[in-house]
């Protein structure tokens, strides 16, 4: 199987990452793929003394790698993510570089149910935003934007001023996920603080709604957002593991509890598959209890 030549795996993984960058994949996605592929490359180099070639890799090599990850204590979801990365790499190699066989496609991806984290309650959201408003106007508007649009971190973080129409009270996300775009209205609760915020920031030379405080010509970094979020959660006294994505889950949860039709929730969250939105349906269980008591 092996040829006595130095490995070319890093060469192909870097080409793949550059390809994703040209496709305008989010910074967090590129970082995640990069870490996964580096780990995969290190495994192959250790197993085959740095002489394995990309064309030499077989299905069994990938399965051995997944087993090694499990033995290291990675959770099934994490192992599944690594497999998704490898599958994406091989799809690129076949479609873009004319590799003869998609090894990744020969490995079945297990269906792993990931339960939704407990969302923030209505009261917790209100308390958090009140705390943020007292501490930082920038982050009060930022996290209000996450919650009131149900958006992911990257589209909000990299939102350009030109894509916010204050006159029509609309926002346009050119790219949310998988190359799709999204138009959303600005609700009154978001429009007022956002309009005032953008007016006050109008003299700053930047294209972004939420610019970096260090480099205004760049968007605020994801690392800085997460750090500020941890500080605000602690200050607000919220005893939950809160991530930027939890605001999105909370939006979907709250809209479901308010009896908003799942089709509308799917449109707001940018879900192309209603099965993603259907995960919020379980939230109605307690609401059904009084009805069942009538039996």
Automatic annotation (TrEMBL):
Residues in a coiled coil are none
Q: PROSITE patterns from the entry?
A: CB (PS51900), TYR_RECOMBINASE (PS51898)
The question of whether DNA-binding is a record keyword is answered with yes
Q: Which residues form the Tyr recombinase domain?
A: 115-293
Q: Indicate the segments forming the Core-binding (CB) domain, all copies.
A: 7-94
Q: Which GO terms describe its molecular function?
A: DNA binding
This chain's protein is named: Integrase/recombinase XerD
At the highest ranks, the source species' classification is:
Bacteria, Bacillati, Bacillota, Bacilli, Bacillales
């Amino acid at each position: 199987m092996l040829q006595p030549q130095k490995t070319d795996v890093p060469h192909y993984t870097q080409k793949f990452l550059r390809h994703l960058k040209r496709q305008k994949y989010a910074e967090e996605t590129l970082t995640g793929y990069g870490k996964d592929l580096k780990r995969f490359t290190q495994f192959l180099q250790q197993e085959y003394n740095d002489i394995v070639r990309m064309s030499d890799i077989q299905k069994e090599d990938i399965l051995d790698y997944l087993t090694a990850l499990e033995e290291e204590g990675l959770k099934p979801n994490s192992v599944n993510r690594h497999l998704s990365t490898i599958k994406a790499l091989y799809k690129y190699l076949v479609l873009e570089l004319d590799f003869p066989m998609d090894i990744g496609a020969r490995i079945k991806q297990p269906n792993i149910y990931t339960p939704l984290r407990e969302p923030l309650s209505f009261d917790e959201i209100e308390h958090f935003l009140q705390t943020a408003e007292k501490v930082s106007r920038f982050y009060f508007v930022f996290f209000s934007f996450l919650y009131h649009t149900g958006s992911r971190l990257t589209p909000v973080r990299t939102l350009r001023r030109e894509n916010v129409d204050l006159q029509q009270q609309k926002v346009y996300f050119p790219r949310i996920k998988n190359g799709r775009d999204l138009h959303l209205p600005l609700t009154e609760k978001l429009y007022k603080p956002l309009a005032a915020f953008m007016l006050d920031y109008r003299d700053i030379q930047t294209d972004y709604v939420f610019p970096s405080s260090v480099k205004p010509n760049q968007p605020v970094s994801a690392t800085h957002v997460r750090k500020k979020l941890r500080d605000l959660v602690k200050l607000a006294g919220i005893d939950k593991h809160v991530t930027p994505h939890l605001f999105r889950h909370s939006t979907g949860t709250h809209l479901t509890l308010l009896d908003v039709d799942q089709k509308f929730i799917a449109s707001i969250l940018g879900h192309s598959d209603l099965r993603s939105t259907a995960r919020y349906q379980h939230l109605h269980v307690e609401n059904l209890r009084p009805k069942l008591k009538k039996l």
